[in-house]
Write a structure and sequence with these properties.
The chain is mainly alpha-helical. Helix content is 75%, strand content 2%. The protein has one domain. The longest helix is centred in the first third of the chain and has 28 residues. Pfam families: EamA (PF00892). Belongs to the EamA transporter family.
Length: 310
């Protein structure tokens, strides 16, 4: 069952960057706020049902934990992600963001004491080689600003994934995701209100590179033209995608679930070709092959652990 959740997550997450590219006329931070507002509200009835079933009563320490996960996921990681989609190609962002399992596996080893067998290590190495081929660092012409944002998003998401795993079994993925999204959105909302202060507008608004951080709209710009992709990004990609991702974690492990992002670089360029007509280059094809082989080692290996925390 865990592999089914991994497959569903991979397909859904592979549409994330493409959907973001289809939404025009919306501030990237505003879009980040809206997608997690929609996704969080979508998960509310499922979260309430789960809390009733598990007899969960949230305390002060629980809310403080959700403030941390909400800040890491919504405010930091996904804000960087939306900025990356704005400044470079959707397929490039998808590939770079997919490097986050490398950090997740390392952090899971130290924080969660999860074992790493030879298959996992080989998978990581082959997948990194594949991503290097796809990114083609010696010939890449993409905007370095977008690439930098994508890497920051990947690193911060891996931290969130491991911290989320610490209590995902206690809360369940529904409660964890719902509370993380809504708490993170509350923080985002206050930051958006602060961005409307005259002193902030005057200080940031004159800087072309930082203008997106000043006077961030809340609902302005949403129209009949972009409402469908915004809802899809909120309900399907954010609500359902993250739900399946943490279900995959619960059924397998943080390391295994992170293999979603070794499959994503294979699917995302194909979706980008079909929807956005972004060209798939020869180096991308070679990289995809390495990632596919790496995924096989990750899923199919049954050897003993080579790295384990006592």
């Amino acid at each position: 069952m865990g592999y089914i959740f991994i497959g569903l997550t991979a397909v859904i997450f592979s549409t994330m960057e493409i959907t973001g590219k289809l939404i025009v006329g919306v501030n990237p931070l505003q879009l980040n706020f809206l997608r997690f507002l929609i996704g969080g509200l979508f998960l509310v009835p499922f979260a309430l049902r789960s809390m009733k079933y598990k007899k969960i009563k949230l305390k002060k320490e629980d809310f403080l934990y959700f403030v941390m996960t909400g800040f890491l996921c919504v405010v930091v990681s996904m804000s960087f992600f939306q900025l990356a989609v704005t400044y470079t190609k959707a397929s490039t962002v998808a590939i770079i963001f997919s490097t986050n399992p490398v950090f997740t596996i390392i952090l899971a080893y130290f924080v969660l004491k999860e074992k790493m067998n030879r298959g996992t290590v080989i998978s990581v190495v082959l997948s990194i080689v594949g991503m290097v081929f796809i990114l083609n660092p010696f010939g890449i012409n993409s905007d370095m600003k977008g690439i930098s944002f994508a890497f920051l998003s990947a690193v911060s998401f891996s931290i969130y994934a491991v911290i989320g795993k610490l209590r995902s079994e206690r809360y369940g993925c529904m409660v964890l995701n719902c509370m993380t999204f809504l708490t993170g959105d509350i923080i985002m909302f206050f930051l958006m209100l602060i961005s409307k202060m005259p002193v902030i507008i005057n200080f940031i608004g004159t800087n072309e590179n930082l203008r997106f951080m000043a006077d961030i709209p809340i609902f302005y710009g949403i129209s009949s033209v972009n409402i469908i992709p915004v809802m899809f990004l909120g309900i399907v990609v954010t609500g359902m995608g993250y739900m399946f991702y943490f279900l995959a974690m619960d059924k397998t492990s943080a390391s295994m679930a992170s293999m979603v992002f070794f499959i994503k670089p294979v699917l995302a360029p194909i979706f980008a070709l079909i929807v956005l007509e972004e060209t798939i280059l020869a180096n991308t094809t070679i990289g995809i092959c390495f990632i596919l082989i790496g995924s096989y080692f990750s899923v199919g290996w049954r050897g003993k652990s080579v790295l384990a925390k006592d």
